[in-house]
Amino acid sequence: MANFITDQLQSIDATTLKQWLEQDEITLIDVREPSEYAGEHISGSISMPLSTFDPNQLPINGSKPFVFYCQTSNRSSQAAQKLFAFGFKQVMHLQGGLNSWKQVGYPTLVNKNAPISMMRQVQIIAGSLVLIGTLLGVFVSPNFLFLSGFVGAGLLFAGITNTCMMAQLLAKLPYNQRV
């Protein structure tokens, strides 16, 4: 196995991750929300959502390093930073997340009965709020247009910062908590 860089997040590619999983050299942690994990995940991974992430709850498997992944690698790098702050030295994440894993054609476990993805939930809620705000603004009072503007500003902020408060709120709903 490669030498690990300490106190620094190391990115690995999907091919390396697959090899290490097959050799049982790492502990793979999925930091997406429970509904995302229930819908699709990499076989052998452990669900530990970033929204409730606690380094004290990590499974300690001898000296195996942790590899984190999420959908695109943003949340996995946030989880890794929490571990560095907690004193861990060997932390890595899958560059490009689950998307990169699937892009090279590696299999995932898919559950067609899982709740719809968090991104689709955000799109449905945000789109509904913009539509309602616009319709109410046209037919009831122009003041309702602020609702559409507020949602648009939130989406702009989410795109710039790669964080989504609406997704974090939706993740707390009961149907998104079941695995």
Which key terms come to mind for this protein?
two-stranded antiparallel sheet; elongated; five-stranded parallel sheet; single chain; 179 residues; 8 helices; disordered N terminus; alpha/beta
Topology:
Layout: E1 10-12, H1 14-22, E2 27-30, H2 34-39, E3 40-41, E4 46-47, E5 66-69, H3 74-86, E6 91-94, H4 97-103, E7 109-110, H5 118-139, H6 145-161, H7 165-170, H8 174-177
Parallel strand pairs: 1-6, 2-4, 2-5, 5-6
Antiparallel strand pairs: 3-7
Helix pairs in contact: 5-6
Structural write-up:
- With 179 residues, the protein is of the alpha/beta class.
- It has helices spanning 14-22, 34-39, 74-86, 97-103, 118-139, 145-161, 165-170, 174-177; strands at residues 10-12, 27-30, 40-41, 46-47, 66-69, 91-94, 109-110.
- The chain has a five-stranded parallel β-sheet.
- Helix 5 (118-139) runs antiparallel to helix 6 (145-161).
- The longest helix has 22 residues, at 118-139.
| Category by helix and strand content | alpha/beta
Strand % is 5-15%
Low-pLDDT stretches are 1-6
> Treating each run of at least 4 consecutive H or I residues as one helix, how many helices?
8
Largest β sheet strand count, sense and barrel closure: 5 strands, parallel
- Rg over CA atoms, rounded to whole Å, is 19 Å
* Count of extended strands: 7
Helix and strand pattern: EHEHEEEHEHEHHHH
Strand order of the largest sheet: 1-6-5-2-4
